[in-house]
Amino acid sequence: MDWADRVGSRIKLRDLHILLAVVEWKSMAEAARRLAVSQPVVSRAIADLEHALGIRLLDRTPMGVEPTVYGRTLLIRGLAVFDELRGSVKDIKFLTDPTVGELRIGSTQGIATGLLVAILDRLLTQRPRLAFQVRVSDTATLLRHDLRERNIDLFFGQMLDIKEDDLNTEIFFENPLFVVAGINSRWTRCRKLALKDLMDEAWTLPTPDLNVGTLFRDAFRASGLAIPHVAVASYGHQLPSALVSTGHFLAILPGTYLKFNGKRFGLKALPVKLPVPPQPVGVVTLKNRTLSPLARLFIKCAREVAKQPARRR
């Protein structure tokens, strides 16, 4: 029996589960309390893992228990193991009853408050017992943190230039950006405008620490202009939409958001050409992660719903 076979027969899922709990709570005592077992049981599980692997997995620090470099490596694979097992249970449940199931989605706000609503509405109309968890954040956080740590099953939204080898991407369409004003703004009566005509207006833009915030500011620089006065910097589209609807502010918003929310907030795209490329919208998944039947169903529905805004542009 070789080393891999010997380890495979001696490493128990229960011990891996205990290791994950110890690292999460940074304490063997706290892990024991959370798992409703005694502390000696926790200590023994960690000792068995270290003996089977012949390495030290945990270090005690003033901040609590921390994984060693070997422990972190084991945890990365361990998370994948439990994620696949959890996914298998969900798949079996979905296959025995296709009307039920749960999917965790990460999305950007511009897509979550428009296109994603249309997709979920269609799926839940057809199968009302389905359940979805939606985590809304910026693209970088969702891809680099939530997707890789398996906090979400897939990402659906506006994408960055993705070059990582461990990700699968499928682009549905390119989402253009528009300068937007309230329908009662004086600028909506103009048939032709340039960014330089709007420099003295009150703008609401994303915070500069976000990738999209940098993109918008680059649009002014590319036009040979200084960054205008940003009266309100924020994350997301809800606050900018409310401000723009007063008629006293301008914003830059994506086309799909306007399609689904423009009428509700009283927004209108201005005839301004932005030197910014359209943003790709699509789905991102982990390469070595098995997609559940519900995930495949969601992606299929997303393709169908996404065709309509792409065609209208």
Features:
313 residues; elongated; D-Maltodextrin-Binding Protein, domain 2; three-stranded antiparallel sheet; Arc Repressor Mutant, subunit A; 12 strands; disordered C terminus; five-stranded mixed sheet; single chain
Structure characterization notes:
This protein has twelve helices and twelve strands. It has 313 residues and is α/β, with parallel strands linked by helices. The chain folds into three domains: 3-78, Orthogonal Bundle (Arc Repressor Mutant, subunit A); 97-173 and 280-312, 3-Layer(aba) Sandwich (D-Maltodextrin-Binding Protein, domain 2); 177-277, D-Maltodextrin-Binding Protein, domain 2. The strands form four sheets. It has a five-stranded mixed β-sheet, with helices on both faces. A three-stranded antiparallel β-sheet has the order 10-7-11, covered by helices on one side. Strands 1-2 form a two-stranded antiparallel ribbon. Helix 9 links the parallel strand 8 and strand 9 (230-234). The chain is elongated and about 75 Å long. Residues 309-313 have low confidence and may be disordered.
Secondary structure layout:
Blueprint lengths: L2 H8 L2 H13 L2 H8 L3 H15 L4 E4 L2 E4 L1 H28 L4 E7 L1 H4 L2 H12 L3 E7 L2 H9 L6 E5 L8 E9 L1 E6 L20 E4 L4 H12 L7 E5 L3 H7 L5 E5 H11 L1 E3 L9 E8 L6 H20 L1
Helix pairs in contact: 2-3, 2-4, 2-5, 3-4, 7-12
